[in-house]
Amino acid sequence: MVMFIPLFVVFYFILIRPQQKRAKEQAKMLSSVKAGDKIVTTGGIIGVVVSIKEKSLSIRSADAKFEITKSAITEITERAGDTDAA
């Protein structure tokens, strides 16, 4: 019984805590997306956000327009209005 406590602590710091941290970062990113942001979806589609609804958003990729769920966003590659010349 005594061995289960350290084992649980190790699992917490190796598995559970990093997963919770990634979930918080993902939720923060999804709440900060706005029209004009360039995004990448989980399916690999790169597009620009056109409009945002409560649980979904419309993106334009090349000549096509898609409506996807917010949870399908993997990353925001470029923010709207950023004019950083790197």
Question: What's the structural blueprint in terms of helices and strands?
Answer:
Layout: H1 4-32, E1 38-41, E2 46-52, E3 56-61, E4 64-69, E5 73-78
Antiparallel strand pairs: 1-2, 1-5, 2-3, 3-4
Question: Span between N and C termini?
Answer: 56 Å
Number of domains: 1
Largest sheet: 5 strands, antiparallel
User: How many β-strands, per DSSP?
Assistant: 5
Radius of gyration: 18 Å
CATH class: Mainly Beta
Q: Report the structural category.
A: alpha+beta
Give your account of this protein's structure:
This protein is α+β, with helices and mostly antiparallel strands and 86 residues long. The chain has one domain (4-78): SH3 type barrels. 34% of the residues lie in helices and 34% in strands. It has one helix and five strands, in the order H-E-E-E-E-E. The protein has a five-stranded antiparallel beta sheet with strand order 4-3-2-1-5, with helices on one face. The longest helix is centred in the N-terminal third of the chain and has 29 residues, at 4-32. The chain is elongated.
Features:
34% helix; 86 residues; five-stranded antiparallel sheet; 5 strands; SH3 type barrels; 1 helix; alpha+beta
Give a brief rundown of this model:
By secondary structure, the protein is α+β, with helices and mostly antiparallel strands. Helix content is 34%, strand content 34%.
